[in-house]
Amino acid sequence: MAQGSYYVPATAKWPIVGSVGLFIMMIGAANWLNGNPIGPWLTLIGSVVVIFMTFGWFAEVIRESEGGLYSSAVDTSFRQGMIWFIFSEVMFFAAFFGALFYARMFAVPWLGGEGTGAMTNELLWPGFEAHWPTHGPAELGGDFQTIPAFDLPLLNTLILLTSGVTITLAHWALKRGQRTALVLWMWSTIALGLLFLSIQFYEYVHAYRDLGLTLGSGIYGSTFFMLTGFHGLHVILGTIMLIVITLRCMFGHFTAKNHFGFEAVAWYWHFVDVVWLGLFIFVYVI
Amino acid sequence: MKRTNELIVGLAVMAVIIVITWGLFAVGENMPRGVTPFSQDVYQLHNTVLGIVTVIGVLVFTAMFTSIYLHRKSRGHEAAKFTHSTKAEIVWTAIPILILVVMAVPATRVLIDMEQTGGAEMNIKVTGYQWLWKYDYIEDGVSFYSALERQSNAARQIGSGINPREVENYLLEVDRRLVVPVNTRIRFLLTADDVIHSWWVPELGWKRDAIPGMVNEAWTYIMEEGVYRGQCAELCGKDHGFMPIVVEAVSREAYDAWVAEQRGEMAAAAHDSARLWTREELMDHGANIYQAQCAACHQADGSGLEPAFPALAGNDITTGTLEDYLKLVLDGRDGTAMAGFRDRLRPQDIAAALTYTRNAWGNETGDTVQPSAVAEFDQG
Amino acid sequence: MSEATTHHDDHHDHPKGLWRWVVTTNHKDIGTLYLLFSLVMFLIGGAMALVIRAELFAPGLQLVNPDFFNQMTTMHALVMIFGAVMPAFVGLANWMVPLMIGAPDMALPRMNNWSFWILPFAFTILLSTLFMPTGAPASGWTLYPPLSLQGGNSFAFVIFAIHLMGISSIMGAINIVATILNMRAPGMTLLRMPLFIWTWLITAFLLIAVMPVLAGAVTMLLTDRFFGTSFFNAAGGGDPVLYQHIFWFFGHPEVYIMILPAFGIVSEIIPTFSRKRLFGYTSMVYATASIAFLSFIVWAHHMFTVGMPLGAMLFFMYATMVIAVPTGVKIFNWIATMWRGSMTFETPMLFALGFVVMFTIGGLSGVMLAIVPADFQYHDSYFVVAHFHYVLVTGSVFAIMAGVYYWLPKWTGHMYDERLGKIHFWWSTVWVNVLFFPQHYLGLAGMPRRIPDYAVQFTEFNMISSIGGFMFGFGQLLFCYIIWKCARGGEPASARVWEGSRGLEWTVPSPAPHHTFDTPPVVDDSVAVHKDELT
Ligand code: HEA
Ligand code: HEA
Ligand code: CUA
Ligand SMILES: [Cu+2]
Question: How large is the ipTM?
Fold first, then answer.
């Protein structure tokens, strides 16, 4: 049960800043895609506004939180918000995993003449045999090779799993009030995140340059890069969040009992971790 | 007293609703019964289900209106206090389940029958294009395009001044009909070249999507000679409303004669692609091809629909070098509605279309394009 | 549950004028913004529908060219669904959820503001495509590839506008879930919550689950068009039908997103004007949950003609039919609520009753559509158009109007003009049937949907339908007038407003003060609206 009062800010000016930022950003991106030279600039401006808004907004919330305005009920609301946000992210990835499963279990076999696809294969794609990985019967994007799972991807899996452990250790340290350990564990988590990103980046360059594997490599390239790409974006976001939280820890924010901001980021990090496990299994291994 | 009251009101309301519903469906057109075994199964199924849901509706509304009539405050009715009744709730969960089972059984049977596509006596490949159909008779080797017939096409233009009511089979007539024999098990292999279309002739009892890169199967067995009309049923762009389907079911003998005739024409066409054409022939044929294949986008007078569809009158490519023009028309332009016509048209058609567009509406290159030139260009 | 008092950080700034609405965090203000926005969108979307109906008044093209017609169809649907109906329900939730559960405000007030303020920008982008050289999207609201990929310059704008709407909806839904789960007054147990709250809780869950899937689907469209991926291109091993699966995995729950809160509203109104408690409260809750669950496994009933394996078609047919059972439970429970009540027929009740009848008609035609072999005929014909307008217009929109009349006195403190309200109801009900009923016949007779021109045998019913459309449409101007008039003044409304009403929202004065339930009320069965163990 809550103690104290439920804090309702009288006004909020950040949301409108955020909306305008998103507006400019989206208009910019669309113009960019249409080849309009103003596009990249608008996207940049919009992004800067959105980033400005994010920092402003969070700073305000942090100030209020540190100022003791929040009750445990507010804390619960934040927790709820974060949980459902992560759930929505899970569903976003589900769409791409769904595409991957559909392509592998239905589309490609049909094109290869299995099941209801007999005539598809005979009339439109004669000679195409279903296999995975594939760039489809028209061999879009040219020949390519895949990245073996039990190589760098395995290493990356271990890195992310380890980072899951280090952030948990950081959490324990926070709960025990061991600030130095906390900060150290946090920085190691961040380091692991950055290491993961570097390896992923190396892998992408390698894929594009040496393996011929690109976004345009048919359905394999599409699912591979979209899934790992969106995951990578989430890792980048997660790492930024980790850095912010770590700096806050260094400024002495959070108490052993009250540290929702920390936990939210930890949840997010675990979520990113779990998605990677799915990726590792379904994109690389199988 | 109270019970009889409810009964009388209930019956009265029910009578009114039945009369209204019946009246509505009597004036309304119900679904066509069709001319294939399945269209008739589907028709039966439709009527069964429609009947069942109508009865459900009548019962539900009767109960409601009875209550509305009897249990009004203005009639001095006092509110009762009950808030639930497990018995009633079980009943109105169970009964709908039973009704659904009654509907699901025949539906399942008909569906399983329809999905048996084996045992075909002939196969027709149907390909949807923006915005016409192509038919390939696989066994008989006949193939042709089928597009909206000229008169309808003229009448449907905005501000055409032609009254659609005076055009016979307005929007439901094509330049070349799909001729098929009756009492034959025909399998359709449906696909598309650009976007998704859907092949629908109500009298045959089904529609099936034509999907680019995929082939769908469906079959029919027409029992009566006649002309059956339908339309594309999946939004496929600007002229989705203008790509009709006309099936002409004829006797076996008539069909065989028709095939022979088509073969003769095709042989002549093969000869045509090799011989030298006169300018008049090219312009004439070109006008036809242009109207059938290009005018949907570039408009009958070559004025286009800017900015999406460029004008060909005074166009740089149209009046430019033959190589560029041929390349564009044969390969199309990726990522736009401008498709490649290499597989869609014969060399003489392309030659004619090019000749025509290079010399019509003030385009005055003055040259002619021979079918052999197209074939040559294509070979390299 | 929070037993705490509220701290409104009100002392330092009191913005005035327009700015106040831009920076507000108050759930009532934001609710009002949502509702007004939705009304504007309804008029815009309706005006587009009138373009469609005007063109279809007679055979032959008269007013617009086919491409513009398709733009109208597409934009009409996008505007109505994402601009009118969904924001209207969110607006009602904003106003009523805190009032009905005894909360001081929404759980995350700042984010609440943001959820709303993204919308005007998203729709500015969407509507601006109408003025682009290649025009607005014209591939139907379902945006099926490859057709949608042919869309001109507007394509990217549309995708990003949909992303923004998605962000807004997800944040709005998260807020509602958090509010309902976390902010209930002491004693407001889950099974004491009014049905409107229950239906919104489940709707919000659906939103969080499926809006991201839509975002994923349109993102794949975007990359297929601009970055060379081949999700929906068979040549590269993809499949255009894959898009349809992902879209409808979102799309079907989406239609329940637009009807469950309507069920909630009707479940509030019918007991009030029957002066009797809701019949079968618990089974109503379970029915709502079952509908939500089933909505995830029926999506392919929109795709029976794409050529699915037989087993899949059978599965989706059976699953779809099963939805009739819990929905039937709702209909029967409403009738049982009326049964032996003491009914009066003020405008909200009229709209609720109209809802019950006409939604049932739409639901029954839905069951017909679920029968696969029959759907081979019905699909993409006007029969489908008739079905979904019965559930959407006489379903969702009628329920929204019922809700607006029901709570308008609480919002404004004035009674609306009852006589005009009744005229509005009867006018709408008569013409909406003239508008949509004939479309059933058109579909059965073979008229495909999304066509700008038709064969002459379809003329009569199209004319009738168009006349109905114009009459119904202009009738809605009366609705606007009634709201305006009520906001300006009128007979003062009491706190209770309706003789038979129960629930926390009727314990606060009318108009509801800017801040309510700063100290949470204590709820027991006498206030709880629907406890069905009580007699
Ligand atoms: C609010 C929105 C809403 C709602 C609630 C529904 C409810 C239902 N819909 Fe509808 N539907 C749409 C909006 C909605 N729909 C839209 C927008 C489309 C078209 C999308 C597009 O293509 O653009 C569509 C299309 C659509 C199709 C695809 C048609 C096609 O394209 O070929 C189908 C097929 O199964 C279908 C079925 C159903 C069913 C079974 C229900 C059920 O939930 C109905 C349940 C209700 C009842 C059955 C009535 C009450 C019950 C009783 C009185 C009990 C007794 C009854 C029986 C035993 C039968 N709908
Ligand atoms: C909630 C959703 C919703 C609502 C409320 C409506 C409301 C209406 N709809 Fe629509 N409709 C859809 C959702 C909805 N529709 C969907 C999803 C489609 C499918 C799209 C697709 O195929 O992709 C569709 C498609 C659709 C079609 C088929 C188009 C086609 O296939 O080509 C038609 C045709 O009659 C139609 C008509 C109408 C009409 C007449 C109304 C009327 O109820 C509207 C009444 C309201 C008004 C008329 C506004 C009143 C205002 C004024 C008159 C004043 C105007 C003033 C100003 C602008 C200042 N709709
Ligand atoms: Cu082809 Cu619609
Ligand atoms: Cu559905």
Answer: 0.91
Q: Closest ligand 3 atom to the C-alpha of B210?
A: 1
CATH number of the domain bearing residue C508 = 1.20.210.10
Interface probe for B, chosen from A119, A121, A128, A135 (most Cβ of B below 10 Å), is: A119
Split into its structural domains, chain C has a count of 1
Domains of chain B: 2-75+84-115 (no CATH), 122-270 (2.60.40.420), 273-379 (1.10.760.10)
pLDDT tens, residue order, chain C (535 aa) = 444 566 665 545 567 778 889 999 999 999 999 999 999 999 999 999 999 999 999 998 888 989 999 999 999 999 999 999 999 999 999 999 999 999 999 999 999 999 999 999 999 999 999 999 888 999 999 999 999 998 888 999 999 999 999 999 999 999 999 999 999 988 888 988 999 999 999 999 999 999 999 999 999 999 999 999 999 999 999 999 999 999 999 999 999 999 999 999 999 999 999 999 999 999 999 999 999 999 999 999 999 999 999 999 999 999 999 999 999 999 999 999 999 999 999 999 999 999 999 999 999 999 999 999 999 999 999 999 999 999 999 999 999 999 999 999 999 999 999 999 999 999 999 999 999 999 999 999 999 999 999 999 999 999 999 999 999 999 999 999 999 999 998 899 998 899 888 889 998 998 999 888 888 888 876 665 544 444 3
What is the DSSP pairing of strand B132-137 with strand B142-146? antiparallel
Question: What tokens appear for C37 in the block?
Answer: 């926005």
For the domain A86-285, what is the CATH superfamily, name and number?
Cytochrome c oxidase, subunit III, four-helix bundle (1.20.120.80)
Q: Is A10 exposed, middle or buried (0-12, 13-18, 19+ CB in 10 A)?
A: middle
Residue B322 exposed, middle or buried by CB count within 10 Å (0-12, 13-18, 19+) = middle
Q: Which long-range contacts (CB under 8 A, 24 or more apart) does B260-267 make?
A: B262/B140, B262/B142, B262/B144, B263/B140, B263/B141, B263/B142, B266/B141, B266/B142
- Residue C17 is assigned to a structural domain of this protein: no
**B123, B215, B336: best mutation site toward chain A, by most A Cβ within 10 Å?**
B215
Nearest to A65 by CA among A217, A260, A282, A229: A260
Nearest-CA residue of chain C relative to B308?
C134
Are C364 and C323 a contacting pair, CB within 8 Å? no
pTM surpassing 0.80?
Answer: yes
